Amino acid sequence: MGIIFSFFAVIALIVIVFIGVQGANLHYLFGVVIPYAAFFIFLLGVIYRVLQWGRIPVPFRIPTTAGQQKSHPWIKTNPIDNPFTATGVFIRMAFEVLLFRSLFRNTKAELRDGPILSYGSTKWLWLGGLAFHYTFLIILTRHLRFFFEPIPGVIKIIESLDGFFQVGAPVLYLTDLIFIAAVTFLFLRRVVIPQVRYISLAQDYFPLFLIFSIGLTGVLMRYFLKTDVVGIKELTMGLVTFKPVVPKDINIIFYIHLFLVSTLFIYFPMSKLMHMAGVFLSPTRNLANNNRAEMHVNPWNYPVKVHTYEEYENDFRDKMKAAGLPVEKE
Amino acid sequence: MGFKEILSEKKPLIVEKWLDAILNNYPADASKFFKKQKDGFRNPVGYTISTSIKGLFDEIIEDPESEKIYPYLDDIMKIKAVQDFSPSKAVQFIYLLKKIIRIELDNEITQKNLSNDLKIFEDQLDKLALLAFDIYMLCRERIFEIRVKELKNMSYRLLKRANLVRELEEQESNFAAETVLTQNIKG
Amino acid sequence: MANPKPEELAKIDYQPPKTGWMDTPTVFKPGIFPYACKPKSLETVGFPNPRQWSVKDEDWKLPPNWQEIFIEGLRERVSKYRSFRLFLDICVRCGACADKCHFFIGGGDPKNMPVLRGELLRSVYRKYCTTTGRIMGKIAGARDLTTDVLKEIWYYAFQCTECRRCSLFCPYGIDTAEITILARELLNLLGLNIEWIAGPVANCWLTGNHLGLQPHTIKDAFDMFCDDIETITGIRVTPTFNRKGAEILFVIPSGSMFADPGTFTCMGELLLLHELGLDYTWSTFASEGGDFGFFTTNEMAKRLHAKIYEEAKRLKVKWIMGGECGHMWRVWHQYHNTWYGPVDFLEEPVSPITGTKFENAKSNKTIHICEFTADLIKHGKLNFDKSRNDNLIVTFHDSCNVSRGMGMFEEPRYIIQNVCNNFYEMPPQTIREQTFCCGSGAGLNASENMESRLRGGLPRANAVKYVAKKYGVNMLACICAIDRAALPPLMDYWVPGVRVTGVHEMVANALICKGEKKRTTNLRGEPLPGMEGE
């Protein structure tokens, strides 16, 4: 059900652009108003969500320890997987965020005992995830060329590296290829692996379809359909300089691309995609395992009713005396 | 080529189908996991079942009355006895083999006129199913024994302290039953 | 159950229905769930909604406004625990955790996949705490809180041992233990606990320990231990209780005072501490290091726990040492200080024997006996005759809580390797941080849910079976009281012939004590290797 719903939701979005741009000529709405709105919703939404999480206290220090603790100096500790200091936490988080270390963990031991097949699926998830996120990042960075005049050197370097193999005209970007492949993989494993299919919801399929469509329209625009790049740049520069203009004759495919991106931006703060920000806040990862060395304060700690020693002795005084146990009151 | 030779020859195929059929009795997600995860430590259910039925199959061909059959059946039934299987579902896996062999060896049986061998073989499988059932019940009994033993162990020290018991003999679990059963299949 | 028709039974191509999980009703199976709590257990500690109810009944006699209570409780907790809120929000259902839970691995019930166990509650959270869930309903993965949903949450909250194995593999560190802990808190608001947890909690409140051992009973039990130790070693150990002015307060889980083989661990600790001439005391009040309150609510955990420091303060000890126990150490290590600190009435722990400062415990002043003993061995303060343990071929089970909630892997191994000659590790994917649970943690070691425990323990048992076959392992060492209670039945069923021991039992067996007689038996009264004839 989720998968069909999500598929048609994305189709509907595309249809809306056709009606809006081709039918009703709402170029300004789709080229300026919606992108602006989406951008600000994204920005404010993400800030709101992060602040919302940030406001919630972390009552306990509960890191998941994945290596030897710090105890005696002669015992080799694992300062990254079981960090004792802030530096250790920083490195652990860096590994987590930049290399998806926990996902990679799946493969570690299996290389030894199982036949090769056994670590396949989990290793692929790590690789697929990594490929997806990094190509997404690079593609996003490349798009900055539309928002700068002149184009910064860094972006040009990235572009030339990305198009290193000099295949085709316009030059084929490696990231485009990997990106589409990675999204397809992430989608297929959701459909093919029964465990994952069983747990998947519409909100898992929808962003995949959406992102795939964004990628697809982008690829179509760059490699197959003739689009007016100069016109597009005019529009995007207009947006960043707050002097919006809507050049005529930009292909509808651009508006579809733009509208889908806008949708993604709007959808982002209210969805699971917030894991991008959430991972930094995860208490099982971003805290040092030094609970016995440094006190962690729970802001809402409150006194509780306890059973005191006095009450205990009152209950058992005679028995304690008979057993020769010392008591406070005779 | 006799019936058993054909079975030996087709072993990989038959065992594969057999395993598939057995694991299909689990919910789809679990079944896929049991099938795919080849690391025996991360997937003891799939691993135990697949290695046990391979061994079992060899033994059945070799000597269906062999004592070696018991540990294989025991390994499988132990797992089934703690999972959501009714007794009938738990022993069903033997009958799955029957069906697979009938289908897979259909041609050979008619061509080489082996239906008599098939009958004998199927009789042996029936016996095996009965044995599997016995083991299943033994496992269930063992679970209840363990429960009782656990409760007894918990109160033992207290009872001893209160001088309520002089000697509480620890009851050994009934290993003798295993020998009785293995004899059964010979008889 | 209606009588099944013969053809149904004989149906060979049986495939379970492929409905979505929300549409697949949960069937309560005997052998899987523990029994409901008794009203008296809840009343003792003032828990809400005590009543007589039974899991098997259709009607759980919920209070009329139960939905309101549950949802209000949920809203309160997502605003008090960042962990909880975050873990409900950011799961992307990538499935990395799906096959990491021992209950799923051993049983195959899809709702035991950690992600799905989380979704059970997450779906309710979406419905009542998020806008999209409220508007979009099922398509957004949200569902109404009905009695069936509540029962389902209950069924699976008590099929999670809070072992945190899934959290190890989650790219965002989502910890199902955290979700289960808070789900159980919510259920507790409705009086939906289990007796195996609520009973010990009530006992602990009244007597200071889960088993309800009264002060004179504890004294008696220790007298018996002392007699046994004297018979075996010729040494009379003289433990003190509730003694003011001792240097160290020693606290162990009460399970070790009472049920074999935990008792042998306790005897081992007695002998070791006596041999050292340590100035320490036991307490009949702080007679429980573990904290079953942790399996009800965080507040209850804190209420039960306070006695440890209260007693340390009253007895004016310098610092506290804790015995071998799993969840006890998760609580002592990760919660203790936050609940009760700053602990400024105690001193930074220093080993009086070696002078070692335990800097890793300088704030909360509690150290683990394995840290203490490892330090003794390193400084050559103990003499061992390892050959006394030569009949044992040992492997070590890492307890979940000290593994993933503390990270103590080397200390116990160092001790084991110094007290016995035959030690073999289980395969790497089943030990240390990847260790498999015994299947009975977090208060689930009741007898009535034995099938569930045996399933959950299968991955652990399977690894033991492997080393038993390969190296002839016959002894499973551990440092957890629940393990010592739960692993023997697990071994009985899956790997008969393998027994279970605490680490300090082996220490005491190998320990050469001043003035001891020639030992012929171990602490269990069984002949030592080479002494079988005597």
Q: Terminal Cα separation of chain B, in Å?
A: 29 Å
**Largest interface, and how many residues on either side?**
A-C, 91 and 104 residues
What count of helical segments of chain B does DSSP give? 9
Uncertain stretches of chain B: 164-187
How would you spell out the order of helices and strands of chain B?
A: HHHHHHHHH
Shape of chain B: elongated
Beta-strand percent range of chain C: under 5%
- Tell me roughly what share of residues is in helical segments of chain C: 40-55%
Q: Which stretches of chain C of 5+ consecutive residues score pLDDT under 50? A: 6-17
- Given helix and strand content, the structural type of chain C is mainly alpha
What is the strand tally of chain C?
A: 7
Rg of chain C, Cα atoms, Å: 24 Å
Order of helices and strands of chain C: HHHHHHHHHHHHEHEHEHHEHEHHHHEHEH
Total beta-strand segments of chain B: 0
Percent strand of chain B: under 5%
Biggest sheet descriptor of chain B: none
> Kindly state the mean pLDDT of chain C as a whole number?
92
Average pLDDT across residues of chain B? 79
How many structurally independent domains of chain B? Answer: 1
List the helices and strands and how they pair.
The complex is a heterotrimer of chains A (330), B (187) and C (534).
Chain A: H1 2-23, H2 27-55, H3 86-99, H4 101-108, H5 110-113, H6 117-142, H7 153-162, H8 174-192, H9 194-199, H10 202-224, H11 229-240, H12 252-267, H13 275-278, H14 309-322
Chain B: H1 3-9, H2 11-23, H3 28-36, H4 44-62, H5 69-82, H6 87-104, H7 106-111, H8 115-161, H9 176-186
Helix pairs in contact in B: 2-4, 2-6, 3-4, 4-5, 5-8, 6-8, 8-9
Chain C: H1 6-10, H2 39-45, H3 66-78, H4 82-89, H5 102-107, H6 114-129, H7 131-136, H8 147-157, H9 165-169, H10 176-189, H11 195-207, H12 215-233, E1 248-251, H13 262-276, E2 280-281, H14 298-315, E3 319-322, H15 327-334, H16 336-340, E4 366-368, H17 369-378, E5 394-396, H18 400-404, H19 410-419, H20 450-456, H21 458-471, E6 475-478, H22 481-494, E7 499-502, H23 503-510
Parallel strand pairs in C: 1-2, 1-3, 3-4, 5-6, 6-7
Helix pairs in contact in C: 2-11, 3-10, 4-10, 6-10, 8-10, 12-13, 13-23, 17-19, 19-23
Tell me what you see in this structure.
- The complex is a heterotrimer of chains A (330), B (187) and C (534).
- By secondary structure, chain A is mostly helical.
- Helices cover 63% and strands 0% of the residues of chain A.
- Chain A starts with a helix and ends in an 8-residue tail after the last helix.
- The model of chain A is unreliable at 107-121 (pLDDT under 50).
- Chain B has 187 residues and is mostly helical.
- Chain B has one domain.
- Chain B has nine helices and no strands.
- Chain B is elongated.
- Chain C is mainly alpha-helical and 534 residues long.
- Chain C folds into two domains: 24-192, no CATH class; 208-510, no CATH class.
- Chain C has a four-stranded parallel beta sheet.
- Residues 6-17 of chain C have low confidence and may be disordered.
- At the A-B interface, α6 and α9 of A face α3 of B.
